[in-house]
Each structure stands twice: as structure tokens, then as C-alpha cells.
Specification:
The chain is α/β, with parallel strands linked by helices. Among the domains are: 67 residues, Ubiquitin-like (UB roll), CATH 3.10.20; 99 residues, no CATH class. It is 31% helix and 14% strand. The protein has seven helices and nine strands. The chain has a four-stranded mixed β-sheet with strand order 6-5-4-7, covered by helices on one side. A three-stranded mixed β-sheet has the order 1-3-2. β8 and β9 form a beta hairpin. It is elongated, with a radius of gyration of 61 Å. It starts with 48 loop residues before the first helix and ends with a helix. The C terminus is likely disordered.
């Protein structure tokens, strides 16, 4: 191995060194036969590097010790926009520095890092997509999300509860249950006035129903049915609770027609004329006052059948 050579530092001299002048040889000491050598040289030796440094330092010190020269005051200039907030009245405008956009070189290591970051980003997106697919597959095929129980609230009618529970909702995936379509199917039942279906996670459904309230019985040659105040035929008398306390309208018009519906075509779910229902209810409300009967329902036999006199009174 080679050692690095260091340059010697400049030595600073503290004084000026002058060579001593050679002594003049006396003429007596020189032999007359010898030739005298005459040497000419400059009286002053050129200063060395150290002497030059000392001279510069002395000049610097002497310049500092001198009193500063008096200079004339510089002319005043108007303040700039940055100082006062208002543009200067006069003076030259300082040119803006030129900006040269140069491309910043990218190191090879950073390029490799960017490439790895892009690959990791693609891998992350792919992993998220796979997880979403697996989660959707689990939610649609797992037995944990299949409807196991359908509860019906708002009614004590066992027949209605059984009809709703056997609509095919049990066993279906709760994510695939069409709430709107099932609600419309339940509301199509003649005995149901309104319904509301809610999902109870993870595998239950709750159906809230409001039943129709029968106000009278409508008797036809094919049977007797309960009807609500809107004219909707609810159910046969045998399937209507409290039918013995309802008044009966006997449908025996000429040619078997009333309210635009043939008596043989009346069945649960048919809409009768609401005006006829309102008229019949008004008649039932006014009969006790006209006939002086305090309790008209006491004359109705069990099963909603009236006597011949009462049937003539209630028959149109």
C-alpha cells in the first residue's frame, strides 16, 4: 500500500530575515598575484512567502486602526410593495429570477421501490376482490342465513298465522328475500288490511298485520260472508269470529244482482259497492229509533239468521 504524501504547511515567519552582508576584503589581505573575483548582487533579497504574509497582515491591521472615512449618505428610495403594501412611485423594478424547470433525476433504487409499490397495490386489489367473492358466496350458501322462523304479530287468528307462515318464506336465504313482493302477497289476503315485513338477522322474519274489521254479514244464495266498511268481502260466516253479533243483509234483488255483482259470484276478496254498505249501516243504526227497539241484536238468532219479519225488513 502506498502512503498518502502530505504537503508541508506554510510556515509563518514572525520576523523578516535578512542575510548578513559579506565583509569587504581588505586589499592588504589579498595577494597581488591572485585575481580578484567581483560578485554583483541585488542589495535587497526578494521576500519569501512568510515575509509576504507578514506584510499583508501588517497592512490589514494598519487599515483597521485608521479612522473610517466619511461617506456621503446614500440617496433615499421609496419603499417597496412588500414593505408598505402599495406600489413604489418611482425606481427600477427588480426583475424576477428566471425559473428553469429541469427534470430531477430518479435514482435506480427509487425506481425499484416504485415498481414494488405498484405490484403490492395490484396484489392488494386482487386480494380484496377475492375476499368479497368468498364473503358473498358464504352469505348466499351458508345455512346460517336461511330463514328458520317467521313470526306473525297483530293477530290472534290461527288460520291467518298459518296462511302467512306457509307462503314459502322459511328455508330461503335472508339476503334474497323480496320484502316488497312478500308484503304485497300478504296484503292480498282478504282478511288483511295492511302488512309490514321486517328482517331480523341472521335468520328470522317478523310480519306485522292489521286485520279487517267486519261490520255486517252479506247473505247470498251461495252463502253468507262478512264484509268490512269499505265493501271488501272478508270470509264466510263459519270462519268469522263474532259473526253472531252482526246484522245481515239478504241479497235477493231481481235477476240476482246488487251493486253490480251477481250473488253467485261473491267470494272472499271481492269489492262491493261502498255506498251500499254505508246505506245498510245507516239503516241498521236508524231502525231501533223508528221501531222503538232498544237492542236489535237480541232478536238475531245464533249464526246470524233473522226471522222472516226481520228478513223482509232488511231485504232490498
Amino acid at each position: 500500500m502506498t502512503e498518502q504524501k502530505t504537503q508541508p504547511r506554510e510556515q509563518i515567519a514572525t520576523h523578516i530575515y535578512r542575510r548578513p552582508e559579506a565583509r569587504e576584503l581588505s586589499a592588504t589581505s589579498v595577494d597581488a598575484n591572485t585575481h580578484q573575483r567581483v560578485v554583483t548582487r541585488h542589495r535587497e533579497v526578494q521576500p519569501t512567502a512568510g515575509e509576504s504574509y507578514v506584510q499583508r497582515r501588517n497592512r490589514l491591521y494598519s487599515a483597521r486602526t485608521k479612522a473610517p472615512a466619511h461617506h456621503a449618505p446614500a440617496p433615499r428610495r421609496a419603499r417597496t410593495l412588500a414593505q408598505t403594501g402599495a406600489p413604489a412611485v418611482g425606481g427600477l423594478k427588480r426583475p424576477l429570477p428566471r425559473y428553469h424547470q429541469t427534470p430531477v433525476p430518479v435514482r435506480s433504487g427509487r425506481r425499484h421501490t416504485h415498481r414494488l409499490g405498484f405490484l403490492w397495490r395490484i396484489f392488494g386489489i386482487f386480494a380484496v376482490v377475492v375476499m368479497v367473492i368468498l364473503g358473498a358466496n358464504f352469505a348466499l350458501t351458508s345455512s346460517a342465513f336461511r330463514v328458520a322462523q317467521v313470526s306473525v304479530v297483530g293477530t290472534h287468528n290461527d288460520l291467518l298465522v298459518s296462511s302467512i307462515q306457509h307462503m314459502g318464506m322459511q328455508g330461503q336465504n335472508i339476503f334474497l328475500i323480496d320484502v316488497v313482493a312478500l308484503t304485497q302477497r300478504i296484503e292480498m289476503l282478504p282478511i288483511v288490511a295492511s302488512a309490514n315485513l321486517e328482517k331480523q338477522w341472521p335468520n328470522q322474519l317478523q310480519v306485522s298485520v292489521t286485520e279487517r274489521t267486519p261490520v255486517l254479514l252479506w247473505q247470498t244464495p251461495r252463502g253468507t260472508y262478512s264484509v268490512d266498511r269499505h265493501g271488501v268481502v272478508i270470509a264466510p260466516t263459519s270462519k268469522t269470529s263474532g259473526a253472531g253479533a252482526l246484522m245481515t243483509v239478504v241479497d235477493v234483488p231481481p235477476q240476482g244482482k246488487i251493486s253490480g255483482v251477481r250473488g253467485t259470484e261473491i267470494h272472499p276478496g271481492v269489492q262491493l259497492n261502498a255506498a251500499d254498505i254505508a246505506f245498510a249501516m245507516a239503516v241498521f243504526a236508524g231502525v231501533p229509533k223508528v221501531a222503538g227497539v232498544t237492542d236489535l241484536s237480541s232478536k238475531v238468532k245464533q249464526g246470524g239468521q233473522h226471522t222472516s219479519a226481520e228478513q223482509m225488513m232488511l231485504t232490498r
